[in-house]
Amino acid sequence: MAIRVARLSQGDVAKASALARRVMLATPYYPREVLEEEARRFTPAALRKRGRGTLFLVARDGTEVLGFCAGYHEDGGLFWLDWIGVDARARGRGVGRALLGALEEAVGGKARKIWCDTRTTNEESMALLRKQGYERVAEYRRHWYGLDFYIWEKRLE
Ligand SMILES: CC(C)(COP(=O)(O)OP(=O)(O)OC[C@H]1O[C@@H](n2cnc3c(N)ncnc32)[C@H](O)[C@@H]1OP(=O)(O)O)[C@@H](O)C(=O)NCCC(=O)NCCS
What we know:
Oligomer: single chain
CATH architecture: 3-Layer(aba) Sandwich
Number of domains: 1
Number of helices: 5
Largest sheet: 7 strands, mixed
Bound molecules: coenzyme A
């Protein structure tokens, strides 16, 4: 079945929250306590409360939610991509690229750039961003939580 990406609907909140939290808690790039703090921002209640300027996209294959990306508009024409994640069983099938493509369509015209970070060791995430035309623009050593990060951007105009 074809992968379709859409904004989060009320009907998908429980599935999207479960997926996001599962993907986050399984990622090896942050200490456990950081991931638990992050996962608390993606409970069903938190997803229902997300306000204006935020965006949460889900990728579905029929009724199954396979991936998500989340972020928010910032002053000055920027969109911060906060998290992207794909169910471990569905990786390598273009779900990540479909999410980023849909994100560009959703924020294009409102934002000049999408920007985000990756841990300097997150090869799969960096490969996805490169494939999607993101440029690595900065490196921050011992930054959030004392960890090393790259900053990436995709110009939309
Ligand atoms: C990063 C992630 C979202 C990629 O999702 P995905 O659906 O597997 O990505 P895609 O199938 O769209 O792959 C796109 C490109 O990325 C690259 N890529 C993806 N996974 C890769 C891997 N494990 N190793 C090397 N390259 C990889 C490939 O070049 C691929 O292009 P191709 O299909 O032409 O070969 C997924 O691995 C994930 O959820 N990781 C855990 C969560 C995470 O770390 N998120 C980022 C932190 S915010």
